[in-house]
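User: Could you walk me through two proteins back to back? I'd like the raw sequence and the structure tokens for each, with a short line separating them so I can tell where one ends and the next begins.

Assistant: Of course. Protein one, sequence then structure:
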Amino acid sequence: MNHKMVLKVIVFGLAFSLALAAVPGTAKAITLIPPMLEFGLTKGEPTKTSIKIYNETAAPVELYTEVRNFTASGDTGQPAFDFTDTEQVGLSTWVNVPDGPITVNPGDRYEVPVTINTPTDASPGGHYAAVFFTTSPPADGQVKIASKIGTLLLADVSGQVTESGSITKFSTIDGQKAFTRLPITFYTMFGNTGNIHLRPTGSITITNMFGKEQTKLTFNSSNGATLPDSTRRYETMWEKQSVNETTGNAWAGFWKEYTNERENFAIGRYKAHLSITAGTNSDVTAASDTSFWVFPWHIVLVWFVVVVLGIGVLILGIKKYNQWIVKKSQGTK
């Protein structure tokens, strides 16, 4: 198995992402608190912190440490690590943690000291690494497949920091413009052109064809970060009720979808306005708009049939009534 394949196996086995802000990372009942550390650094000064390990298994574990830089992978914000790089630079070389083995007995907690020695020539802005705990000691010049869990380190070196970014795309998912019902997912691409990670926050306001506000959605409720020189995708959903599966024959599927449209009703043209801010003092601002149509055709068809039948019954009733009046006026029964 080549290094690239091994790297993919390891990366896909990691149980965390930049979107995680408060949920402990776990792997085989070994828990790290916190799953993410975010802090400021000053050039030439050490910064001390710690990571707590909880062993919830019934047997003692021996763990070894490894520190690696990471970047953003694709547009999802998922961290990407290069475990094959033997010549490391940046934050991973500033971090000092015990090599191991670190023995944690069943049911015990162990606090691992972490010291970051920031060099005097460190570049201002964001630096990103992770402290891994693995069941196998790192081998020189080799990549091993082993259980790995880690805590992300998001560091900000003081100095001339540039906070800048913009919305590069805002639309309904896949650019779809016509729907039959809710839920509707909005797709936002936010590009970070500065040198520090940004957590854009804001809202999406939905208005109908008459300009009346229908709802206001929270943007980036998970508080996910966009790293420098990267673009991240954020998804926001407008929904009302859960959607039933339209399984079964065509007749049953039609009525299940009718129920879905009734419980997630919307009709007409809608406009979505996205407004966000980011940065330490909310200096980064951006806005964008998109529009779409909702036409619940199952409901429209059913009520069209009901109205047509109702009108037919009414016409027939009037006709019968007129015939009865005529007969009565003629003195016939």
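----
Protein two, same layout:
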Amino acid sequence: MEARAVYNGTVSWLTRFLGGSRQSSLDEVAGEVGSPPSPAERVPDDPGASLEAWAGSLGLSVEAFEARGAPLLPEEAATAEAVLSHFDAHRPGPASFPSIALKILDLVRDPKMDAIGLTRTIELDGALSSGMLVLANSAVFRGVSRVETLREAVARLGLEEVARVATALSTRTLYRGVRAEFDLFGPTWNRLFYHAATVARAGSDLARARKLGDPDRIFLGGMLHDVGKSLALRSLAALLLADRVPQHEAAAVDRILHHVHVPVGAEAHREWGLPPGLSAIAERHHLSENAPGGERTDLHVVRLTSALELLRTSPEVSSSAPAEAVGSARALGLGPTRVRALRTGLAEHGEWVRMLFGDETGGPAAVR
């Protein structure tokens, strides 16, 4: 397999992720990271394990499950209301959603999908085509020769990898404002994109490894579950440029975006006319009353991976993340041991995403 040959000689974790999620599993991750725990350290892999066991698995204190987020300060609350009003007056129209992402989703769910069909779909979008070529020739995927065509890129990366990268690349347009807005909050927009891409990749891998839900819909759901933060950031930037709100420090901006992102994201999904399953992920991923099983499986996979990633990178943003992680893990029938493995693997997924899409300054110029 040509794509596999390219990966030989790279470090082991990169080989595993680039080789495709069908070959990765939580058991492999748990077995490769660090030395095995002693019998006294082992956590029972039981979804009904005690809160103490879950706390140990997540590296938290038991008190973290009872924490309640502090309300916004008055000036932050005023800005949050201004953001909601601005978004309501400047809602994104249906055409603002990169519909090619849904086309790619439909393709990868078709058992008859082939390289020719996927290539032709990507070729419909010139920016996506050029971006795919840039990434296929990046340090992450680069082989012994330069890729010159999309067909060569598909052969090098494989159908599954091309679909995931193309979906992430096409939805990245939602994580950018106009140039003046991006200059104000560039690192924040990139951080939001990295969170979405890491959750999407880790969630789809978890779904495949454990046969949970629809991995491809989970990938797109992961890319879009927090899109309300990006859209709210556009409104915040526009208000700031118009001198209608004060400048807030970075931590306050994170609190404001977290406060407003669910209603903004839910409204955007409705404006775009996205499938109900995707919209439910955006609208319900912070709710506590999410029943297990059925159509909610995709939601719980995204909710679990998103909560774990927030705990890893931004624990101060969401006080409900510990309870969300445990609640969705239990709904999926996962115990502390497997969640511990997923938590460990998230760091590797996050590093992979940053290597592929660039650093905090915005990534490869050709895909901006």
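The chain is about 65% helix and 0% strand.

Let me know if you want the two compared in more detail.
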